[in-house]
Predict the 3D structure of the following.
Amino acid sequence: MRLYDYWRSTAAYRVRIALHLKGLACEQVPIDLRAGGQQAEDYLARNPQGLVPFFEDGDLAVGQSLAIIDYLEETHPEPALLPADPKDRARVRAIAQIIACDIHPLNNLRVLQYLERDLGCDQLKRMIWYHRWLADGFKAIEAMVRDKGGEFCFGDLPTLADICLVPQVYNAKRYEVDLGPFPTIRRINDHCQQIEAFAKAAPQHQPGA
Ligand SMILES: N[C@@H](CCC(=O)N[C@@H](CS)C(=O)NCC(=O)O)C(=O)O
């Protein structure tokens, strides 16, 4: 298995957590997003979308973190990243998708760069934009996980929801979001940090950090 990633990419961070939770060895190939490595000709030939993560396993070559994690889940079902009950699976996916479909795409590097370079937003407006969409999503998740009593987003085992949440918390801190209004999210994130798979996947431990 080979993962094209960038140490600070939250989407790649999700895949790294899933790989470590499942105990799977994977070669990492760093793509330097700040230097535009995602737009290099040889990388685009591999992944025409010009984003990380990108993943290869035998004759499979695929992007999109959630598709990669689905593949890992289907090919290496243990430990499961989704609960057994279909209703619970839907609950977990709903949290993961708030992050992966509603927060992250609005706050991705290319979107923030577009706001600044093409639409003339200064850094303050860029920050306001980031904070707005992050807070919207986190407010919903906080309400969904509060009073559930589990150590993770859903129950006492890590799931796809935590895999998406932890990288987004990392990114929120990087953009100096006040996490005070989200005590349950903070508690879950702190708990995940104690788990080896999450710790090993953390940005500061990746090549290029
Ligand atoms: N929906 C995609 C998002 C991938 C994505 O946007 N990756 C970011 C890093 S977190 C990226 O490569 N950004 C490069 C850019 O914006 O130019 C996924 O989940 O894999």
In short: The first strand starts at residue 2 and ends at 5. The two ends are 21 Å apart (CA to CA).
